[in-house]
Amino acid sequence: MIPTSSKNQGSVYFVGAGPGDPELITVKGRRLLMDADVVVYAGSLVNDAILSVCRKDSVLLSSAGMSLADIIKTLAEASRAGKRAVRLQTGDPTFYSALAEQAAALDVLNVSFEVVPGVSSAFASAAALKKELTVPEVSQTIILTRMEGRTPVPEGEKLSLLASHGATLCIFLSISMIEGVVAELKKGAYDDNTPVAVVYRASWPDEEQITGTLKDIAAKVEEAGITKHAMILVGDSLGTMEENDARSKLYDAGFSHEFREKQS
């Protein structure tokens, strides 16, 4: 049991820890960690270095071996004891995080909570590659998705259907099925020459990048022995500027807008 305190009822915060680099947590997220009485963190994924800012008297609990009921009980008890509790999850807590079921359970118990966004591994991967995912006239749409595996996806969200748009895809939780991913993508708007990048543990010290095309990426990933903790980025926006001969209108001297006249 978590001891009570003299404070009013405490709050629960779902905080995105970012992709791994301790400095990529938001300023707000770091402050909440520093002030937290109880931290329930994704022990199998969160970089332990992020927890170094926690107070020495904070209760730190890994959720790796906890069930949903265990997590909710801990957060609710902390709140009712007047404690500040942080549920620390990797990346951003608003996708692929089980936030919905945790939030619903807290609502049933009338436990208030807030959600603090974080840096997704998708964007950390793009940054590591030094790529813009929305190159003008090449792709203006980013789709965050995953390959169907043990966890199904809705029928209308099959990877082959999403691939028909030709948008930039950020594919989570699917690296172990890379051959299947490639096969599904080729059923859509992509072909053997479509650029692909795989980033293993983006922003961690042992980050690894593999670049190629749909023709050779599966073999490269297999050779590298990567089976988890990797982001797959797909789309023509990953090509070079020479390949994507398009420029933004924002800084085009021949294009006028509210803050700049057209230059001759």
Describe the overall structure:
The protein is an alpha/beta fold and 264 residues long. The protein folds into two domains: 12-116, 3-Layer(aba) Sandwich (Cobalt-precorrin-4 Transmethylase, domain 1); 121-238, Tetrapyrrole methylase, C-terminal domain (Methyltransferase, Cobalt-precorrin-4 Transmethylase, Domain 2), CATH 3.30.950. Helix content is 24%, strand content 19%. The chain contains seven helices and ten strands. A five-stranded parallel sheet has the order 3-2-4-1-5, sandwiched between helices. A hairpin with a 7-residue loop joins β8 and β9 (208-213). It is elongated. The termini are far apart.
Summary, kept brief:
The chain is of the alpha/beta class and 264 residues long. Helix content is 24%, strand content 19%. Strands 3-2-4-1-5 form a five-stranded parallel beta sheet, with helices on both faces. Strands 6-7-10-8-9 form a five-stranded mixed beta sheet, sandwiched between helices.
